[in-house]
Amino acid sequence: NKAGALAGKTLLITAGPTHEPIDPVRFIGNRSSGRMGYAIATAAAQQGATVTLISGPTALSTPHGVERINVSTALEMHDAVMQHIKGKAIFIAAAAVADYRIATPAAQKIKKSTAQTSLTLIPNPDIVAEAAALPNRPYIVGFAAETEAVIDNARAKRERKGLDMIAANQVGPGLGFDTEDNCLHILSEHAERTLGPAPKPSLANELLLLIADAVNEQH
Ligand code: C5P
To answer: Does the annotation mark 169 as catalytic?
Structure first.
């Protein structure tokens, strides 16, 4: 679609959860389905963008016309983003990246015992914050899944991570993660908007139109 709002633009998108291995058969994960990120990738391609999707483990099929790179862990997602971000016009971080990984995953399956046990967790890199600190970086959009004080937490998160725009949504039972519909509060330096509640594909379209406007104003 050469006439779309994102015609000629290159987009990098992360989506889905990450899986952090405990041993060869177990991992720590989260409830992200990847649907919001995939809806954004689909809509961006329809609006004329060249889309690279870096995806954690999901059950979704690759959107038409999108280049998909599969990763599993936060470290793999980090490396894939740093490899592909150069020259992109827009980076949208929709993945639910694990904040921590297991310090030393076991090489063999951990045996059951009756004793109490624990895992040592170490922090993962903050991919979107690191991207925002790069020179000549793209226009960067992050997500904020919050369970309380959604707007205030999102505003602080946008500033702390150095993002151009943040899309905040409330998560909890029936909301946000692993659901069809969503509601997004969009915050940027100069604008605040609420989109939805609506199906994720329609929110993705509206979000991308706001991003296209912001990117076109920059130049
Ligand atoms: O800090 P929090 O995880 O709530 O931030 C969410 C935003 O940051 C999302 O855009 C998510 O994709 C991104 N993120 C990231 N790398 C991390 C953690 C979060 O890119 N390690």
So the answer is: no
CA–CA gap between residue 10 and residue 171 (Å, rounded): 30
Supply the residue whose CA is at minimum distance from atom 2 of ligand 1.
Answer: 144
* Ligand 1 atom with minimal separation from the 143 CA: 10
91 annotated among ligand-binding-site residues: no
- Residues 125-140 pLDDT 10s: 999 999 999 999 999 9
- Residue 188 belongs to what H/E stretch? strand 181-188
* Assessment of whether the complete model's pTM goes beyond 0.90: yes
Q: Distance, CA 128 to ligand 1 centroid (Å)?
A: 6
- Whether 144 is in the pocket of ligand 1, judged by its Cβ within 6 Å, is yes
**The two three-digit tokens of residue 3, written as one number:** 């006439």
Q: What is the mean pLDDT of residues 137-149?
A: 94
Catalytic residue from among 1, 30, 124, 136: 30
99 assigned to a ligand binding site: yes
CA 131 to CA 162: how far, in whole Å? 9
- Averaged over 5-25, what is the pLDDT? 98
